[in-house]
């Protein structure tokens, strides 16, 4: 039985080492790491990714699949729910680093199964909703920057996209305090509080700077 970390590295900020460190700090003992680089979780299913295909081939009954959160498996509701349920049918346990969630097919109690499946659906829907909200804010920031090449962008954000998305994920879950989020992301408590108060503004500001190539 093996514990395998799957990481999807879609930007330069979402580093493989960061995701592995997070998993180890959460208490996971990782036997093998499988990672896809430069793929979109919204438009590419796990089976369509090079290492995603290998993951389906290598996982066996009794193995544990670790992901930072369900959005590493995909940003599409149907794809994520189908993937997790297929792994459970195979006898694979799926665990998340954020929130320490565990999904397996061991239970046969219909009530427990219904609760488990509802939670999987909720997390998958949240992943898709967060992706769509992030893209909408990014488009708004880019359009604002294009509208006036000399627009004042304000102070350059102290965070990169990886840190911002992680902070927003943890804030959305509501299980971590400001200090814990700051430690995990490397941001200051004040920055985390500003992101919490105005997440759309934080995304728009970062998108505007990215549009300027800064």
Structure description:
This protein is an alpha/beta fold and 214 residues long. The chain has 2 domains: 3-109, Rossmann fold (3-Layer(aba) Sandwich), CATH 3.40.50; 123-211, no CATH class. It contains 8 helices and 5 strands, in the order E-H-E-H-E-H-E-E-H-H-H-H-H. The protein has helices spanning 16-25, 50-58, 77-89, 110-147, 161-173, 178-185, 189-197, 199-211, and strands at residues 3-9, 32-37, 64-67, 93-96, 102-103. It has a 5-stranded mixed sheet with strand order 2-1-3-4-5, sandwiched between helices.
- What is the typical, i.e. mean, pLDDT? 81
CATH class descriptor of the largest domain: Alpha Beta
* N-C termini distance: 46 Å
What topology, given as strand order, has the largest sheet? Answer: 2-1-3-4-5
Number of domains: 2
In short:
The protein has 214 residues and is of the alpha/beta class.
Supply database-style keywords.
globular, alpha/beta, 53% helix, five-stranded mixed β-sheet, Rossmann fold, 2 domains
Furnish the topology, listing elements before pairings.
Layout: E1 3-9, H1 16-25, E2 32-37, H2 50-58, E3 64-67, H3 77-89, E4 93-96, E5 102-103, H4 110-147, H5 161-173, H6 178-185, H7 189-197, H8 199-211
Helix pairs in contact: 3-4, 4-8, 5-6, 6-7, 7-8
